[in-house]
Structures are given as C-alpha cells and as structure tokens.
Amino acid sequence: MTASQLPQGIFLTFEGIDGAGKSSHIERTAQAFRDSGRCVTLTREPGGTPLAEKLRALLLHDAMDPLTEALVAFAARRDHLVQVIEPALARGDVVISDRFTDATFAYQGAGRGFDWDKLCQLEQLVQAVPALEGLGAQHPEAAIRQPDLTIWFDLPAAVAAERLTTARVPDKFEAQPGAFFAAVAGGYARRAEAAPQRFARIDANTSREAVWQQVADVLQAKGWLQPGVLA
Ligand SMILES: Nc1ncnc2c1ncn2[C@@H]1O[C@H](COP(=O)(O)OP(=O)(O)OP(=O)(O)O)[C@@H](O)[C@H]1O
Ligand SMILES: Cc1cn([C@H]2C[C@H](O)[C@@H](COP(=O)(O)O)O2)c(=O)[nH]c1=O
C-alpha cells in the first residue's frame, strides 16, 4: 500500500475523573474499530512507552510539587507522542489513549492549582510535531497534535468515589478527597468549554449499557463506525 492509499489515522482520547468508568468502554471501542477492519493502537497516559511507564510510576506514587507533576506528565507525553502516537497515526491506525493532555489540565491545573497559562505553554511546546509543521500559519488550532475526538466521561465526584471504594488499593490521586475530584471535574468542564468541537460529553452516571450507547452514538455520528460493529 502506498502512503496515499493508507487510511487516515484517528486520534481518540478518553477522559474523566478516577472511577468514571472509562476502562471497559475503551476496550469495547477498540474492538469495534478492529471489527470494522481498522488497526488499533491502544495506549494510555501517563505511559505507553517504557520510559513513560517509569514516569507514570513516579507520578502516581511519589510526592512532588505541582510544577514537577506537570513536567513529569508532559515529559512522559513527549516520549509517548514521538515513539508511539505519531508513528501509529502516520501508519493510518486508530490511536485510542486512556487519557492525554486534558488530564494534566484537570489534575495538575484544576486539581493541584497549577497555573493554567503555563500548562498552555507546555502543551504548545510538547505537542508540536514535524507532521504538523507549517499548518499553524493558516489554522492556528492545527499547529500542535490534538486528539480528533475526546470522549469525556462526566460523573459527580461522590458517585465515582463510591464506585472506587470496592475497586482497588488507591494510588496518590485516587487517595485524594472528594473536593479534589470536584475540582478536577471542573477542569475537564473548562477544557470542554474551550474546545466544544473536540469534546463529546458522556453522562457517565447511568448504567454501563446506557453509557455505551452514548459512546456508540458519538462514534457513529463521526462516521467512523457503522451500527453493525457497535452492537
Ligand atoms: N456505569 C457503571 N455503573 C456502576 N459501576 C460502574 C459503571 N462503570 C464502571 N463501574 C465500576 O466503577 C469502577 C471504576 O470503573 P473503571 O475502572 O472503568 O473507571 P475508570 O474511569 O477506568 O477509572 P480510572 O481512570 O481510575 O482507571 C469499577 O469497579 C467498575 O466496575
Ligand atoms: C495523564 C495524567 C494522568 N494523571 C492522573 C490521573 C489518574 O489519577 C492517574 C492515571 O491513572 P489511570 O488509572 O490510568 O486513570 O494519573 C495526572 O495527574 N496527570 C496527567 O497528565
């Protein structure tokens, strides 16, 4: 297959506070794309490369100040972009990432209170990639790599906390109080408001099947998947 015959890559991210219920829907989305004949790169942040997974362990378990947290998250992201996301998009894969930059704005920005504008600067620096060079002059929004679509699982912090009590031993973030997650949820809402064309809000405070129906509707409305593979 020549480069011009390759399908266009799709970059899809899932976001939400801890316990919002993303996991099973990410797997189901990946399977639906595979069933439609697409190659899928399924990945996560922080993580997705050996180096970024080491940084993930530090971010999730070691105490550090908010700037350090932001830098660690963006360092992991840069490696992930260069090593995994950009090559997969260039191959025409559907890249599905469990979290991306919106999480840094939500957790380090809204949750920890780190300066939003400085996060914007780091985003511009880290997500500039050769494949998009030159596009920014006419379309500033196209100057950096951003997801084509972000599926945001919106769930009240109290409901997420209830779901997580029986789920697992908490990491550094999961151990935070409800007020932290209420702030994080506000951070996601702020990001969604700033980029409504990129975000699809899912009401996650309902049954798994009703949540899946919303996800399926979004993917179908994009024209990426047909009802047959979304059942
Ligand atoms: N719609 C739902 N109703 C009730 N419980 C749910 C629902 N969806 C998921 N759960 C349960 O809530 C818990 C958290 O779900 P899950 O691990 O999928 O969330 P997550 O968004 O992937 O969280 P994290 O980002 O922290 O990994 C799990 O125990 C899961 O079984
Ligand atoms: C990308 C990113 C993530 N986080 C936080 C959010 C979660 O609490 C953990 C990741 O755990 P999950 O089980 O994979 O959801 O890390 C963050 O604080 N900053 C980030 O940029």
From TrEMBL:
<dbReference type="GO" id="GO:0004798">
    <property type="term" value="F:dTMP kinase activity"/>
</dbReference>
<feature type="domain" description="Thymidylate kinase-like">
    <location>
        <begin position="14"/>
        <end position="214"/>
    </location>
</feature>
<feature type="binding site">
    <location>
        <begin position="16"/>
        <end position="23"/>
    </location>
    <ligand>
        <name>ATP</name>
    </ligand>
</feature>
<keyword id="KW-0418">Kinase</keyword>
<comment type="function">
    <text>Phosphorylation of dTMP to form dTDP in both de novo and salvage pathways of dTTP synthesis.</text>
</comment>
<dbReference type="InterPro" id="IPR039430">
    <property type="entry name" value="Thymidylate_kin-like_dom"/>
</dbReference>
<keyword id="KW-0547">Nucleotide-binding</keyword>
<dbReference type="InterPro" id="IPR018094">
    <property type="entry name" value="Thymidylate_kinase"/>
</dbReference>
<dbReference type="GO" id="GO:0006233">
    <property type="term" value="P:dTDP biosynthetic process"/>
</dbReference>
<keyword id="KW-0545">Nucleotide biosynthesis</keyword>
<keyword id="KW-0808">Transferase</keyword>
<dbReference type="GO" id="GO:0006235">
    <property type="term" value="P:dTTP biosynthetic process"/>
</dbReference>
<dbReference type="GO" id="GO:0005524">
    <property type="term" value="F:ATP binding"/>
</dbReference>
<dbReference type="GO" id="GO:0006227">
    <property type="term" value="P:dUDP biosynthetic process"/>
</dbReference>
<dbReference type="InterPro" id="IPR027417">
    <property type="entry name" value="P-loop_NTPase"/>
</dbReference>
<keyword id="KW-0067">ATP-binding</keyword>
<dbReference type="Pfam" id="PF02223">
    <property type="entry name" value="Thymidylate_kin"/>
</dbReference>
<comment type="similarity">
    <text>Belongs to the thymidylate kinase family.</text>
</comment>
<protein>
    <recommendedName>
        <fullName>Thymidylate kinase</fullName>
        <ecNumber>2.7.4.9</ecNumber>
    </recommendedName>
</protein>
<dbReference type="GO" id="GO:0005829">
    <property type="term" value="C:cytosol"/>
</dbReference>
